[in-house]
Design brief:
40% of the residues are buried. The chain contains eleven helices and 13 strands. The chain has two domains: 219 residues, P-loop containing nucleotide triphosphate hydrolases (Rossmann fold), CATH 3.40.50.300; 63 residues, Alpha-Beta Plaits. The chain is α/β, with parallel strands linked by helices. Helix 6 links the parallel strand 6 and strand 7. The longest helix is centred in the middle third of the chain and has 16 residues. The structure holds adenosine-5'-triphosphate (ATP) and magnesium ion. The site of adenosine-5'-triphosphate (ATP) has 14 residues, from strand 2 and helix 1. The site of magnesium ion has 4 residues, from helix 1. One of its GO terms (molecular function) is ATP binding.
Amino acid sequence: MPAPVIAATDLVKTYRVKGKPDFVAVDGLSFEVAPGESFGLLGPNGAGKSTTMKMIGAVSTRTGGSLKILGLDPDRYGPEIRSRLGVVPQQDNLDGELNARENLYIYGRYFGLPAKVCHQKADELLAFAQLQDKAKSKVDELSGGMKRRLTIARGLINDPRILLLDEPTTGLDPQARHILWDRLFRLKERGTTLVLTTHYMDEAEQLCDRLVVVDHGKIMAEGTPASLIREHSSREVLEVRFGSDRNAEVAPHLEGVGERVDVLPDRILIYTHDGDAALAALAERSLHPVTSLVRRSSLEDVFLRLTGRSLIE
Ligand SMILES: Nc1ncnc2c1ncn2[C@@H]1O[C@H](COP(=O)(O)OP(=O)(O)OP(=O)(O)O)[C@@H](O)[C@H]1O
Ligand SMILES: [Mg+2]
């Protein structure tokens, strides 16, 4: 086994809040990321994902536990670590007054790269991000998806071994998300280690070799997307709606249909190896939902199972 590029043990971050007890945002996380791996932190708002990413990125100090990035402790080797990472923060922090190319160029200079290298890299990365024709456009004039692509390009200016991506596609339309996923796949193929946070389970399923499900600063489960689904959910899910008022009323009559039943405010989820058979079983009990859908289990179901809550609230 190659040495991990990131190793966190009992990582803790507490925030001081005036007039209140300290708030524990990250509550004892332990995980390792192998070189070239694509590792995800999946969790709802406030789970502690960005806080964890900031500690990995050596821009926020930890309160407890141990953390090694490329074998180095960020408390002692912050600048070294930062120079070897690429960072795509949750909020784009591009310079809106400068054009796309200038943003890349200046970021490279900030890393101490020679001017000639910065020019060359800026052109390469504009091509990688499919933004050549926007090279001279001011950042304020770019769309959200273009800004995100530019931020990723900027994060690559120093040829990082690890790229940290905090919610890379939040707020983007499906096409823009797919373009971004494609770019991230290419990076992965080149051997870049990706660490990303998301609350989109399809994104986690697409991009992550392995992930941890985080809630309230704690790891609820860890594994590949497929193994998490296998372990914590059934093969298929039958989703039925009887109408908002009737769902709770119908629920007691579902005993024995499927392996498990979850009643949500707007629908009932029946976990089963065979969704069509479960639907037939409902009909036999004279239960006729207004709508029904048989689908494969997803990470959303895993999350619901582990926390009792939906991932996107
Ligand atoms: N600087 C801060 N001071 C005090 N509390 C903070 C600070 N930053 C974050 N928190 C709190 O820590 C918790 C975790 O926040 P964090 O930003 O890490 O969550 P997240 O998982 O990234 O959520 P989101 O999906 O909304 O981005 C939240 O309850 C947040 O309010
Ligand atoms: Mg966040």
